[in-house]
Amino acid sequence: MGLQYLGLDAEQERVYRALLPLTDARVAELADAVSLPEGRVLRTLDRLVELGLAQGRAGGRYTATSPDVALGPALAGQRTAVQLAEQALAELVDIYRSSTLGHAERELIEVVAGTDAVRHRYLQLQLGARSRIDTFVTGSHQAVSHDNTEEATVMARGIRARAVIDRDFFSGPAAVPNVEESLGAGIEVRTTGQIPLKLIVFDGSIAMLPVQGRGTGVDPSLVLRGGPAQLAQSLFDTVWQHARPYGTTSDELDPIDRRILQLLLAGFTDGAASSQLELSLRTVQRRISALMNAPG
Fold first, then answer.
1. Which end of the chain has the least Cβ crowding within 10 Å, N or C?
2. What pTM was estimated for this model as a whole?
């Protein structure tokens, strides 16, 4: 059973199920199949015809309508109703949470939902920074990418920017050129094996991070102020202290050798460096050997 959720009672469902495998069934035949009086079966068949689940034939015979045709629209309507109910529930939960938080708590924690809203809030805070921006970078770009950030505008104002990048980020396309572009803009970069989550802290007083933590999307995100933001800053400072500097090699080196050396100093293996730079492992190892044997 289960069709009661689509508006059929138990008896109507029994008769409909019995009718499905039959062709031009008589009322007496169905009554025997479901063990009900013929009068009740006839009334049930009339109701099934009204619902579009059965069709009457000449000579007092009946045939079932295909379930996907008869029940499909009702099921789609149920799904739509459930989706609308879920949306209404989410809105009610938001209202409840807002009402149960005091004014002070709402000032400390802001929830930003929707990828476009997350991007807009991120760029607002980035452009509003006064002295420094500290960032954890991991995985792939999501709401804000290297192409739509306001990094250049911010750096032109003389703001100090630091970034800790984990190795997951370097698995993405054009990761090394993007990092080098940031270095050229004046951003201090360090690398580590794995960072806790995506995070950006503005002036040590406002932080933004995904609600679900590492390995998830950035929608929804939290904007933190006060004590929570200070904790985020302390977390960044601790990870920064133990991360490895990136981009501190000599400018006199060949550009490819400089990239190899930067990755090795950041803790990458020969194989990982060859993958990032799209070079063969033999080429990377040959260049490393030449660097080690270079005079001076």
1. C
2. 0.53
